[in-house]
Design brief:
Blueprint (H helix, E strand, L loop, with lengths): L5 E5 L6 E2 L4 E2 L2 H4 L2 H14 L4 E4 L3 H4 E3 L2 E2 L2 H13 L2 E7 L15 H15 L5 E5 L2 H9 L11 H25 L4 E7 L2 E4 L5 H10 L2 H6 L6 H9 L4 H8 L7 E6 L5 E4 L5 E3 L5 H13 L3 E5 L10 H18 L4 E6 L5 E2 L12 E2 L12 H13 L23 H22 L8
Amino acid sequence: MGPQFLFATGIENSNPTIRNGKLRVDEMEKCGHYTFWQKDFDLVEELGIRFLRYGPPIHTTFLGPGKYDWSFADTTFQDLRRRDISPIVDLCHFGVPDWIGNFQNPDFPALFAQYAGAFAGRFPWVQLYTPVNEMYICAQFSALYGWWNEQLTSDQGFVTALKHLVKANVLAMRAILEVRPDAIFIQSESSEYFHAENPAAIRPAEIMNARRFLSLDLNYGRRVNSEMYEYLLDNGMTREEYHFFLHNNLKHHCIMGNDYYQTNEHRVSPDGTTRAAGEVFGYHVITRQYHDRYRLPVMHTETNLWQGPRGDEAVNWLWKEWANVLRVRNDGVPVIGFTWYSLTDQVDWDTALREPNGIVNPLGLYDLSRNIRPVGSAYKQLIADWNQVLPAQSVCLQVPIVMPSEIKQGWAKQQQANVKSNNSDQSTAAANTPSADGS
């Protein structure tokens, strides 16, 4: 085992519901993955990629409490293991099964933890996880903007969805660690920034810039600022729920995944409305803000851009994002990976999946006929150029990755035993340490 830089891509597996829960938007189906999954894995190998953001479709896998249909997961994950591709397993990507309903359901966190534990038990060779994808965006689109799932447009709906999503993520991490003590969790979360359009907009922009951190603050057990604490309690979070997050800090098992697109920066008007700002600060500046707050290793977990009329727009964006990753890294931030998301083009993301128009979005490394796009060729070359350079640099944090083919080796078993012992020691120490509020 040696230091590795995690060059990755992903299979888009968003699956929210729209039209008041009556229509499921299954991106794996829209993009043809259920039919062409073997070809898709071939393409991952052709690019020289060994890390794949991937997960089973929760709505067809999780059938009820303790009831699972693993048929598709068994087939696909066995093939990934055979190819020695390490999945970063995405267990909840914007949707839940119909029988759970939506993210307002208070039973969701415990039920999801059972699902995560069951997955880990069935696939114990899997080490890397994103239990819940983009918790902030999922809560915002589902319960503040009214676009998906519960389709609410209230602060209380947003806080309820957010606390359930983050609690689900924390409980899932704990359940997975019971099975795989050296599991590593890569939180894929949107990195946002809100720019005040004029002095009158400073106040609403400040609130939004505080709110953007809520999902990771809760997930990492970091105390929120006083204004956000009041916001949470005013909108349905109890003191006990807040303390749950403070007392369940699993930060030492985590890598902070930052997603960055041109749409992540916003111009704020005095009345609090926002519109797209385009790239102003960029990935470098915003990721430094997040790293300064959480002090965790970083992975760039999502980016893409449409292939435009010239044909080189996505290629130039890839180069720009990679330059930003190197800049962050050269500033001393331990950046351990980069992801172009996703492997193939996507469908209907031009309306954020709100409208089932069947419009193909040319965002992938390959088109939906599985022909390589210019950005795919450029990413393949970038990986070939840099793959042997980055691991040799001492600034790179050595992440104790165990590839699927290494799971039975002696050093990998010893690593798990050592981590399990450390986890037990830390749990004992935490139980004997009074909390900051004296309880």
